[in-house]
């Protein structure tokens, strides 16, 4: 009998040790279920999806090279993480499809955080504030939103401007027509030609374009929506998102993020760690 009791005790002890081993391995099992950063590290490349016509966040300069605030920040982040940055221009209207099919590792180009987008995208913490504003020609008589009743409004398809307009139902109902464009720059060119009466777009982009291009546009004081920019990742890529987020916070702490912001905007307008 003692022999059987001893055997039973040994078996029980073995079972406890096995279960303890399983419990101890749970953190690594959790990490194994989300190897998003490890995959990027292994291939040595981070693929950033962006709209190449979205100054000053990401756009092509006179030499045809992709530059911009988000581009400079991403270059610094990937440099600190020891991986190469690949800039991948995408159709902004299909950005979430590009992300979820694995063509890119993140959407990072003045990407507005919205509740609808949160259903399909894992966002970093916000790094910049923005507003959706109306751009008209300087010589026009438009001074507020009410003046645009019955007029043609242009915006970028699939953009946060489209989301803002959808949320402003009374304003939208009074418009004569809403025209969608592939990008904001095309919309602004059509505004210059008189094809449309106004453009709804990001204030940061609008003010940069007006200043740099010295165009005869003006921004109406009345905005349609306030928002924040974030970096979008696949829903399960929490490990990668946290790695990027921690690097951004380190850049904010040591002043590098402020330095890049000052280069593009004349001052630090970022919100990381604030």
TrEMBL record:
Q: Which GO terms describe its cellular component?
A: membrane
Give the Ionotropic glutamate receptor C-terminal domain ranges.
43-267
Q: What is this protein called?
A: Family 3 extracellular solute-binding protein
Q: Which PROSITE patterns match?
A: PROKAR_LIPOPROTEIN
InterPro entries in the cross-refs: Iontro_rcpt_C (IPR001320), Solute-binding_3/MltF_N (IPR001638)
A molecular function annotated in GO for this UniProt entry is: ligand-gated monoatomic ion channel activity
What UniProt keywords apply to this chain's record, in alphabetical order? Signal
Organism per entry? Thermincola ferriacetica
Q: Check the UniProt entry and state the signal peptide residues, or none.
A: 1-20
Q: Does the keyword Signal apply?
A: yes
Residue ranges annotated for the Solute-binding protein family 3/N-terminal domain, each copy included: 45-268
